[in-house]
Amino acid sequence: MPSDQSIRVLVVDDDHLVCTGLTHILSTADDIAVVGSAANGAEALESVMRHFPDVVLMDIQMPVMDGIEATRRITNMPRPPQVVALTSFDAEDYVFRALEAGAAGYILKDIAPDDLKEAVRTIHGGDGFVSPRATTGLIRAHRVAQTSTRRFDAVERLSLLTAREREMAILVAQGMSTRDIAEATYASEATVKTHLGRIMTRTDAPNRVGVAVLVALAGLLD
């Protein structure tokens, strides 16, 4: 039974073994409670309305309704949970489709158990999370999209940033946490959060992950 302080997590994956494994890993954390599971996107929508999770771990490729569409519908709900895209495919198409659908993070299924728990905590705390390995997918996606209008839009929006903000935006896209960025830039965490707020406001990015997508599209990760 989850406590009032527990982070409530819904696990969505059509592979029963994967779902069971993720549930077991997360259940070993005192501050995380798995409140339900689902085998496809349609079941995920029903489970979100029934269990009111804080975070949803969402597989991408599933029958009936895939994780991309489920993410889009969940993030459009009133007071939606944070959705984390979860996949074994380190592919740029899945990265962008999941993030553009509203996912607040992107994690590869081979993430270490402790890193998975920390990612859930990070997402629940209001920070986006992009697995450092998944950043390579963002880089490849930039190369695919570099001749598109999306790239020019990203460059234009990032041009509104100061040099300091631009530096922090790149670190966000590299998968760094607020604490890591503070250490890398010799700033306090409060200062970093202030800068990140301005970055999101100036670029009209919905969250840190949106900033990461813009950075990748603009080619700044190369």
Beta strand count: 6
End-to-end separation in angstroms reads 46 Å
Largest sheet: 6 strands, parallel
Helix content: 40-55%
Strand content range? 5-15%
CATH topology of the largest domain, what is it called?
Answer: Rossmann fold
Tally of contiguous helical segments? 11
Structural class: alpha/beta
What is the CATH superfamily label of the largest domain?
Response regulator
Written as H for each helix and E for each strand, in order along the chain, the element string is EHEHEHEHEHEHHHHHH
Tell me the name of the CATH class of the largest domain: Alpha Beta
Task: List the uncertain runs.
Answer: none
Q: Per CATH, which architecture of the largest domain?
A: 3-Layer(aba) Sandwich
Count of distinct structural domains: 2
Rg, alpha carbons: 17 Å
- Bulk shape: globular
Chain-averaged pLDDT: 84
| Main β-sheet, spatial strand arrangement | 2-1-3-4-5-6
Describe this structure in words.
The protein is of the alpha/beta class. The protein folds into two domains: 7-126, Response regulator (Rossmann fold, 3-Layer(aba) Sandwich); 138-217, Rossmann fold (3-Layer(aba) Sandwich). 53% of the residues lie in helices and 14% in strands. The chain contains eleven helices and six strands. The protein has helices spanning 16-27, 41-51, 67-75, 92-100, 113-124, 135-145, 149-158, 163-173, 178-185, 189-203, 208-217, and strands at residues 7-12, 32-38, 55-59, 82-87, 105-108, 129-130. It has a six-stranded parallel beta sheet, sandwiched between helices. β4 (82-87), α4 (92-100) and β5 form a beta-alpha-beta unit. α4 (92-100) crosses α6 (135-145), α8 packs across α10 (189-203) and α8 crosses α11 (208-217). The mean pLDDT is 84.
